[in-house]
Every structure is written in structure tokens, then in C-alpha cells.
């Protein structure tokens, strides 16, 4: 059949990102055929509620006609133009005004790219360029966090604090350092209060800066809520303490809003939810509801001014890619933000998130669940063999994969990551659909529990 043929061709031709390629060779792909609202259908016609918005990204679901129409209109008018050498295009210009209208107030300039990785890569280069420009060329180290995820380019993959992204790639590059992950569940010492844990992490950050020499540390990067590291919501007071340390040593703050941006945490940006004052902010994914690839690195006027001066000396600002500010991608992103505003997506998230969080937190009493955590419409459950000791399952049990597969049988896609199950549904999800998601998740968990107890 044509299905078997395309499966065979896939296995024959493709290198799949983040895939156990050995397993893939045996089992073949799950082929997604079409989407409707928050649901997708595979090539056998089976329907799934997309509990992960693809890769934490399709905030408006899979069939928003307005985005399709915005793309088609721009396609017909001007399918491509670039922003190099002072050229511009109207969608890129209009999108920049829209983005700055909603972004944290001290951000005032925008550099476009195609992916979150590139946006963070640009952030690294901007930090380096800026410190050269202000006569502090030694201030180049960037501190990231263990379990943080910032992408896969050589620089952004170095920022990422997950072992698999470094192993076999000879990363991180030097100048990129990692400090603690703010997960109380994983990182607390025995008997340590959450407050003491938070203070210890802030002290550790300061100690790292002092050890390296504050004159060598240029920036700190963080996701407001860590996504791919397991959905880690920072404890109370964490970012307040971190920002004080950064200010004290004159260190720039890069906020990676690639997942948190555009309503995910219950405010327009994670910066709003956690009161963050970024010097640089990266966005991607929900910027266009991921209908087309586009990302942006937003910077403060102070950084921009220095970079503009320096580029005058060199002759140009020598960074950017062929598709920076691509007009069709920009037109779709512009329409996406208009929808967020017109439909008041933030108000919708605030309305349905309490139910999402209630169902999520109810799972904490399940025998397989050590912790449930989340904010807004993002969350995770941590799977454990033993609630008291928090002992994870042996990796040979493949616990998160088993849960993921059982839940999929019940028509819901969730993502297993490192002993945890992540949830990040489209922001347009309704209360009834939230129940559908959690009902299937519970069924899947119960089946795996039964299976393990046998
Ligand atoms: N930053 C965060 C917080 C992400 O979650 C991701 C991707 O998941 C990235 C950066 C990298 O984005 P991309 O995959 O578009 O390069």
C-alpha cells in the first residue's frame, strides 16, 4: 500500500531529530496526515488530541484559516525579500511594531531569524559584539543552567544544559558555563526548605561569577519556565535573587521566551509572569503558531546603540540570514499576534488554566507520580518508583515511553522526557478538552501501573 511505501521510504531516507534511530529503523514513523483545531490525524485516520502543541509551539491549533489566508495573500504579493543592505518589506516592519507593542518595555529593537536556536545564537553574538563595543572584550562568558534548553547550534547547543546535546558533539564550547537547575524536587538537599534551596542556588550563581571573575562574565540566559528540561517552574524569589546578582556584577540578562512567549504561562510573556527585566529576549515557536518558521532576538536600546556605533566603524552589522524577516513568515506572525490580541488569548488561558492545573495537581496522588508541576497551560508529572525516596525508574523500564504510548492509544499525545511526562496543549483548548486530555492520561498511567505490578 502507499502507507507501507511511505513508511519504507522514510526509514530508507531520513535522519530523524531526537529519535532513537535503531528503534525507528524497526518500527518506522508515525505519519501525521492532517490537523483540525487541537487535533491531528495520522495516516490511518486515527485522531489525537495534541497535548504538546507539536513541539510546544502550535498555540492556535492546526487549522487557523486566518494564518493560511495571510500566507496566501503575501505569497501572491511578494513571496520573498530580505532585510540586508537597508532593504525591507512591509510585513517585517509591521510585525516589528506589533512585537514591540506587547514586549517588555526596555526592549526596542528586533533581529529576525528562522528558529529558536538561531535567535539564541544571535543573542550570544550580540553579547560578544556589545562587550567588544564598550571596551570590555574579556567580558564574554555566558552562564546558562543545567537542564536549560536553548537549541542545537554550536553556541545555543552549548547553552543547552542537557547531557545528550553535549555528548559526542564536544560541547559546550569554552566561555559557556552552567549553574544549577532551579528544581526543588530534584535538587533540594535532605530537610532543606524551598526558601533555603532557592537562596543556595542564588549564592552558587554568585560564587560561580566570583570564581570566574565578574569582569569575564557577560550574560546569563534562562527560560522563565524550563521546557525540554522537564517543565521546571522556578521557586518563589528565585528570579528576584538572580536578577539582583546580575545587576550587582553588570551582567546582561537574556530571557529565552521560545516556549513561554505569547500567553503560555498565563501572561503575554514569562517575563510578565515572573517580573523579569531582560536586556535581550528571544522568541520563536508561538510567534507564528509555528505555521511558518520565524524567530526574533529583541534587544534594549542601550545594546543597539553600541552595536550601531561599532558597525559604523567596521562598515556593517555583519550578522543575519537569507530569511531574516521573510515576508510570508512575518505576515503569518503578524496575523498570529493579531489573533492573540483580538481573541484575548491571555484572558482565555487565565480562564482555563486553573482547571488544567487542578487536573494536573490531582495526579500527584497517583502511585506512579512523584510530583506534578506547572503554570498556565504548561505542566509535567514526574514519574517515580518510590514517592518517599523520589527514586526514578531504572532507564531499562522506559517508563516515560510506556506512559506516552499508552496515553496515545487513548487518543492523546503527550511527551515523555527523562522520567517525566510533559503537557503543553494549544492555548485554544477548552475545559472539556482539558478533561479529555487528563482522562486519557489517567487511563494510560493506570495501565502502566497495572502492567508494572504484574
Ligand atoms: N529555546 C527553547 C526554550 C526551546 O524550547 C527551543 C526548542 O524547543 C529552542 C530554544 C530552540 O528552538 P528551535 O528548535 O526552533 O531551534
Automatic annotation (TrEMBL):
Listed Pfam families: Aminotran_3 (PF00202)
GO MF term (any one): transaminase activity
Cofactor(s) listed in the protein's UniProt record: pyridoxal 5'-phosphate
SUPFAM superfamilies listed in its UniProt record: PLP-dependent transferases
Gene3D superfamilies: Aspartate Aminotransferase, domain 1 (3.90.1150.10), Type I PLP-dependent aspartate aminotransferase-like (Major domain) (3.40.640.10)
Family, per entry: Belongs to the class-III pyridoxal-phosphate-dependent aminotransferase family.
Protein name in the entry: Aspartate aminotransferase family protein
UniProt lineage: Bacteria, Pseudomonadati, Pseudomonadota, Betaproteobacteria, Burkholderiales
